[in-house]
Design a protein that fits this description.
single chain, 233 residues, Rossmann fold, 2 domains, 9 helices, 6 strands, globular, binds zinc ion
Length: 233
Amino acid sequence: MQLPYYLKNVLHLFYPHQCCGCGSDILPGNDLLCLKCTALLPFTQFETIAGNTVEKIFYGRVKLSSAFSLFYFSRHQLVQRLIHQFKYGGNIKLGEYLGKLMGNALQNNPRFTGLDVLVPLPLHAKKIYKRGFNQAEILCRGIMQVTGLPVVDHLSVIREKFTETQTHKHRVERWENVVESFAVQQPEFLKNKHVLIVDDVVTTGATLESCVMALQHIEGIELSIATLALANK
Ligand SMILES: [Zn+2]
């Protein structure tokens, strides 16, 4: 239904529609970001480049076909605010929108041709209970809307393990040392498929590596990775 202009303005008073990046209410149509924030998005633009920073993270660890992150992540900057609103503020619409941007980067990209399915990095049941959703799954939904690739959910977290001795570590570092292990259900379904593993942020790559390790034994499988953002270690 098209609303008259004056009615839209009245509605805006009661249901303010604000930019997810800066809070400005000067938004084109129903967009989630204002033009200024859109122009500030720190795209890595390396999704078409072999040997990019994300692929280097996994060198010598696991075999991947291709990998990329859409944005550079910096503390207290736009991308962090968006991820925060999406993950902790429950802004699912924003998550799907960010997923669509990932989909745009994959679409017609020669390094990601022949993808068959999207696999969201599973989230521990405790976290899903707390958050109400798996952020990687929401990103996959956005990617699916652009690429038409199906989302499959054949992975689950089986346990958490600590990679290093914890005794002298600071609390935050301790958390980062938690690596999850994954189990695959119905592995035969992923046979001979090119799988794109999707997550929100890659830092050390430990969790994604663990996920690749759970999948790589499947016959004929090819694995690639896409994350919304790349953070410094
Ligand atoms: Zn803005």
